[in-house]
Amino acid sequence: MRFMPRAQLLTLEELALVGQAFVELGVTKIRLTGGEPLVRKNILQLIQTLGNLAGLKELVLTTNGSQLPKMAQSLQAAGIKRINISLDSLKPDRFQELSRVDKLEVVLRGIEAAIQAGFQRIKINTVILKNRNHDEVIDLTQFAIQQGIDISFIEAMPIGIIGDHNRAETFYSNDQIRQDLKQAFTLIPTTETTGGPARYYQIIDTHTRVGFISPHSHNFCETCNRVRVTTEGRLLLCLGQENAVDLRRIIRAHPGEIEPLKQAIVKAIDMKPKGHDFNLERSTQILRHMNVTGG
């Protein structure tokens, strides 16, 4: 893996300025995601700064869990309210194959550390692939129930070029997952929302909710109000489109000035597309991978 040259990345101060600009424009929720945001040096400094923004109601984090054994308590103290942890398998060999790192035991310890830290809500994010890990749908859900946390199943998005499987052949819809879960659990639809695309069901007689994020089988573009700012300062108006605005150029042309940045954001939001154009039968249109998208 090659890391991006430091000069291409927004500094922590520049990232904080972006966060401030969005909050001053009315945004009430910020999520730090990746890649893996917790490997960024001095990330707690950024989290504390964002957590202190007047008007921000919720600061949340998505992580692969590898840094949580040593950072969970500090993250909670710094202002993180909710945390999502990626977990696609409970089998060590399969976990390594899917994630390309041999860290299942570390991630499981990270989940335990997050529980002990006392976040308002903890959720597992799981991507299910047919003939890869679809036989673990019930086991992963049972694990969430045992831990007293939530789980969301996310349909794989056709982002980035891959060579180890055919997306159309490995696609496993959330409708199929729901049918699998009904064999073992009773799911009750809820009206709960975290402001994102997930549709939640309560598992009866448990504290666990199951969420389904379905960009293919149940497109949610009409309700999407999310944008993403990458670590390079690219404002992505849709994960399923390549159109973006270079906020880094604006920030560095007007050091420390927030008004030009706010004006650029407002202008960009007017260009937010109506939706993505995902098609499993076509060649990949989005060449960037999620692990370099960040945000």
From TrEMBL:
Database matches in PANTHER family: MOLYBDENUM COFACTOR BIOSYNTHESIS PROTEIN 1, MOLYBDOPTERIN COFACTOR SYNTHESIS PROTEIN A
Coiled coil regions, renumbered to chain: none
GO BP, sorted A to Z: Mo-molybdopterin cofactor biosynthetic process
Cofactor(s) it depends on: [4Fe-4S] cluster
SUPFAM superfamilies: Radical SAM enzymes (SSF102114)
Gene3D superfamilies: Aldolase class I
Keyword terms of this UniProt record: GTP-binding, Iron, Iron-sulfur, Lyase, Metal-binding, Molybdenum cofactor biosynthesis, Nucleotide-binding, S-adenosyl-L-methionine
The protein's name: Molybdenum cofactor biosynthesis protein A
